[in-house]
DNA sequence: ATGGTGGCCCGGCCA
């Protein structure tokens, strides 16, 4: 089973790239972030034509998340329950597998804009709500994978120039603590389960030729529950779409799980 | 030290 995440920064603009990528990398589920389109503009037919189904939570102009999958998405949940928020940042769904149901979550965590700003406070409140909800979700669904744009580089090795970024939004200590509080529920950063190239990043600013200089951050993550992590045999960042014409500023992250056959 | 680019929708927000 292959699971992937990609912040595509407008599905309208990036749809051809997403379809091309899916056909070259026929993953079981692809979590998308920053659709930037309302629900009635989601291009479902384009996905069904290539053998996928989808569930989504869209909104006009900003945010928006989806799960594109090869099998039916069950028990769909939009947003964090009991967290009053009109921004569409969460969609969760259940996929059947040989080892039982697997809960898949596509997450677009707030950016935070600048340390100390209103948006930064919202980011920390949002992370606390995510943690509280995931705690129960992990009890209901022990086999859980939450993939997305976390807008947090967990460690200095995830930052191209840690000295330049120290204390900044995306790397500040409260943000890293919020991210670690999620991991402490019993989730593992799949990418760091394996040996990886140095200076591995998933996002590069559009400005100042950041991709050419590999001036990036690793802020897109695949988190696996304890019941899933031992099935994971690889987790890789696919940098190639970042070199496309009209690229997203993010690139896909792909985790491969080898599940035993049902007995 | 500032502003650089890109997507939204068409001046300014958000990333």
Automatic annotation (TrEMBL):
Keyword Iron-sulfur: no
Keyword Cell cycle part of the UniProt annotation: no
Annotated residues for binding of Mg(2+): 7, 34, 149, 151, 249-250
Annotated site, Interaction with DNA substrate, chain positions: 250
Domain Endonuclease/exonuclease/phosphatase: from-to ranges: 4-250
Site (Important for catalytic activity): 220
Stored InterPro entries: AP_endonuc_1 (IPR004808), AP_endonuclease_F1_CS (IPR020848), Endo/exonu/phosph_ase_sf (IPR036691), Endo/exonuclease/phosphatase (IPR005135), ExoIII-like (IPR037493)
GO biological process: DNA repair
A Pfam family it matches: Exo_endo_phos
Positions of the catalytic residues: 108, 149, 250
Xref: PROSITE patterns: AP_NUCLEASE_F1_3, AP_NUCLEASE_F1_4
Stretch forming the signal peptide: none
Essential cofactor(s): Mg(2+); Mn(2+)
MF (Gene Ontology): DNA binding; double-stranded DNA 3'-5' DNA exonuclease activity; endonuclease activity; metal ion binding
UniProt site positions, description: Transition state stabilizer: 151
Keywords attached to this entry: Hydrolase, Magnesium, Manganese, Metal-binding
Cofactor note: Probably binds two magnesium or manganese ions per subunit.
Domain of life of the native organism: Bacteria
Family in the record: Belongs to the DNA repair enzymes AP/ExoA family.
Name of the protein in question: Exodeoxyribonuclease III
Gene: xth
